[in-house]
């Protein structure tokens, strides 16, 4: 970091110009204890993009009821999937950034951040700017656009940019729900996972995170993006894919059919062998490893199913890193001559 030539003595130091790529995911608690989960849920569920109820009505319910009951239950769930290196979602996102570190040449910094919790978007964005990044690609790692995920991650970054005197130029990664690179990566990953099973599933379920149903009528394209991903995936795999939506939250009507109800209905109707994949999650997390792989299996087997397989997300597998490298490279076009 040097002051420019011919600069006055009090000229602030200027870093060598660079480009930044900030991978952003949802966020996760710092620990699997009720206190950490409470802090995380307090931030997450106070986001007006996530719970679209006026704060005056919602905050008393959140602070008075939900944050006094849910953290203990959720902490128990987190403890089932917690790893030595922490939360699975953070571990996989960190690994994705580490594996992409040298993918775009020496002038491009790759980092990661979380919308809720740590590492915070503002902190990592500031670190990128301090390191000289004058152009930054914000990359929310959600294949399907949703206001509650994609938009709020970008909002958080823009809120920090609003505090900067010298703002970097910004691009945002568009949703990639129908990108042949994404569908191809899913196809390869799922085909490999299926080939490793010792049974042939009668049904393959693609389980996406749910959303309140009213968001569809309000113009959120999330539902359509999920439907298109499932259709393209079925075409690519050459087999039917049953779509379902998981992780219902609160009393409102959510997008359906619900994954848990679908598993039970299938078993009751005579299906014995299923595989479940979660294409909307770019990394395994609580919602896949606990809700699908543990509780989903229990529901299916209790209802009479005999064989259940949860197929992992793309995570930091080679096929995933190659997909991310290609998708990000395309967005960096004109900013960088790629190696
Ligand atoms: C992949 C897309 C996601 C959408 C869309 C989404 C919407 C959404 N989620 C909640 C409430 C909760 N989600 C929770 C966990 C969670 N959600 C996603 C992703 C999406 N959420 C991920 C990746 C995770 C896992 C985080 C982790 O640490 O592993 C939770 C917390 C866990 C719990 O207590 O059950 C809640 C709560 C709402 C209300 C919503 C849309 C309106
Ligand atoms: Fe969620
Ligand atoms: Fe739709």
From TrEMBL:
Residues reported to bind Fe(2+): 209, 287
E.C. number(s) listed in UniProt: 4.98.1.1
Pathway assigned in UniProt: Porphyrin-containing compound metabolism; protoheme biosynthesis; protoheme from protoporphyrin-IX: step 1/1
Keyword Iron: yes
Signal peptide: none
CDD domains assigned to the protein according to its UniProt record, in alphabetical order: Ferrochelatase_C (cd00419), Ferrochelatase_N (cd03411)
GO molecular function terms noted in the UniProt entry: lyase activity
InterPro entries for the chain: Ferrochelatase, Ferrochelatase_AS, Ferrochelatase_C, Ferrochelatase_N
Keywords assigned by UniProt, alphabetized: Cytoplasm, Heme biosynthesis, Iron, Lyase, Metal-binding, Porphyrin biosynthesis
Location relative to the cell: Cytoplasm
Reaction(s) the record says it catalyses: Fe-coproporphyrin III + 2 H(+) = coproporphyrin III + Fe(2+); heme b + 2 H(+) = protoporphyrin IX + Fe(2+)
EC top class named in words: lyase
HAMAP family: Ferrochelatase
Primary role: Catalyzes the ferrous insertion into protoporphyrin IX.
Family: Belongs to the ferrochelatase family.
Protein name: Ferrochelatase
């Amino acid at each position: 970091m040097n002051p420019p030539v011919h600069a006055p003595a009090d000229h602030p130091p200027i870093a060598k110009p660079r480009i930044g790529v900030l991978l952003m995911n949802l966020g996760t608690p710092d620990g699997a204890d009720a206190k950490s989960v409470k802090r995380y849920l307090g931030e997450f569920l106070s986001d007006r993009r996530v719970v679209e109820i006026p704060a005056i009505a919602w905050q008393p319910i959140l602070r008075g009821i939900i944050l006094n009951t849910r953290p203990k239950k959720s902490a128990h769930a987190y403890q089932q999937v917690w790893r030595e290196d922490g939360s699975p979602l953070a571990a996989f996102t960190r690994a994705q950034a580490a594996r992409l570190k040298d993918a775009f040449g020496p002038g491009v910094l790759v980092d990661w951040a979380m919308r809720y919790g740590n590492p915070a978007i503002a902190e990592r964005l500031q670190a990128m700017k301090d390191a000289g990044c004058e152009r930054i690609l914000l990359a929310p790692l959600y294949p399907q656009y949703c206001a509650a995920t994609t938009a709020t991650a970008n909002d958080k970054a823009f809120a920090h940019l609003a505090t900067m005197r010298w703002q970097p130029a910004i691009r945002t990664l568009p949703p990639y729900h129908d990108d042949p690179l994404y569908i191809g990566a899913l196809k390869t990953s799922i085909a490999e996972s299926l080939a490793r099973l010792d049974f042939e599933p009668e049904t393959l379920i693609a389980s996406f995170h749910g959303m309140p149903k009213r968001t569809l009528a309000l113009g959120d394209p999330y539902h359509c993006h999920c439907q298109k991903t499932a259709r393209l995936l079925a075409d690519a795999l050459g087999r039917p894919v049953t779509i379902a939506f998981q992780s219902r939250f609160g009393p409102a009507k959510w997008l359906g059919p619900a994954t848990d109800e679908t598993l039970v209905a299938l078993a009751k109707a005579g299906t014995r062998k299923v595989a479940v994949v979660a294409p909307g999650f770019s990394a395994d997390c609580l919602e896949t490893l606990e809700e699908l792989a543990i509780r989903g299996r229990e529901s299916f087997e209790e209802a009479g199913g005999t064989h259940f397989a949860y197929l992992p997300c793309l995570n930091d597998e080679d096929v995933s890193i190659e997909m991310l490298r290609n998708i990000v490279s395309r967005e960096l076009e004109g900013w960088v001559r790629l190696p």
